[in-house]
Design goal:
This protein is mainly α. The protein folds into two domains: 1-61, no CATH class; 63-99, no CATH class. It is 57% helix and 0% strand. The chain is built from four helices and no strands. It has helices spanning 6-18, 23-42, 69-78, 81-93. The longest helix is centred in the N-terminal third of the chain and has 20 residues, at 23-42.
Length: 99
């Protein structure tokens, strides 16, 4: 069985990013690999984890846009009357569907 080395992990990650795989998918895959190899390290199955890329398992997501109060009122005015209170509560109180 081939040994997984730090350069191999770096090359795998770079190839995935260069090949068009999304950065979020690559970050999550790297985090999973790091967790698996971390368990192997703590179980003394390997001597050292090859996952050494700082921040590679971190997902950076941009802040989501929010609507203005005026846009909430405009939407509430555009829906059927029976849904108006639902739109106002969700838009002004920040409630999600399950709340």
């Amino acid at each position: 069985m081939a040994e997984i080395s730090a350069p191999l992990v770096r090359r795998w990650r770079a190839d995935k990013l260069a090949g068009g795989t999304g950065p979020t998918t690559v970050a999550k895959a790297y985090a999973l690999l790091r967790a698996v190899l971390g368990t192997a390290l703590s179980d003394q199955m390997i001597r050292r984890s090859p996952c050494q890329i700082k921040g590679a398992g971190t997902v950076h997501t941009p802040e989501r846009p929010t609507v203005t109060v005026q846009e909430v009122y405009a939407l509430a005015g555009a829906v059927l009357a029976r849904y108006r209170v639902l739109v106002l509560m969700a838009g002004l109180l920040g409630l999600g569907w399950g709340e």
